[in-house]
Amino acid sequence: MEFLIYRFKCEQDDFVVTDAEHEGELTAEKCGMPVDELEKVGNFAEMGKERVAFDEGLAKRSIAHQGFYRFHAKTFEPVAQPPLSMP
Predict the structure, then answer these.
(1) What are the tens digits of pLDDT across the range 46-68?
(2) I need a labelling partner for 54 at 20 to 30 A (CA). Which of 3, 6, 12, 36 fits?
């Protein structure tokens, strides 16, 4: 299976995964974000247990049931540097 991954434009830590069969039906409104838009991140093949961002088994079941799987990932924004010395 090839996963098609989208990200919400306003809520950039929220992602939606679908497959080619359900891609045409995918909208932000259907995924619970009626005022947002989806932007495509890319297409990714199955990786099995090595997949870090989401559980592939859960995603497959959700896609089969409702056409998509939505998940929240931690932000990739840089974290502030800790101080060089502690008080």
Answers:
(1) 887 777 788 899 999 999 999 99
(2) 36
Range of the domain at 47: 2-72
Is the CB of residue 26 less than 8 Å from the CB of residue 16?
A: yes
Task: Report the domain count for the chain.
Answer: 1
- Residue 85 falls inside a structural domain: no
**Residue 81 domain-assigned?**
no
User: pTM to 2 decimals?
Assistant: 0.78
Asked if 68 and 16 count as a contact pair (C-beta separation under 8 A), the reply is yes
CA 3, 6, 7 angle in degrees (round to 5)?
A: 145
In a domain, 62, yes or no: yes
Give a yes or no: residue 36 inside a domain.
Answer: yes
Question: What sign has the CA pseudo-torsion 52, 66, 22, 16?
Answer: negative
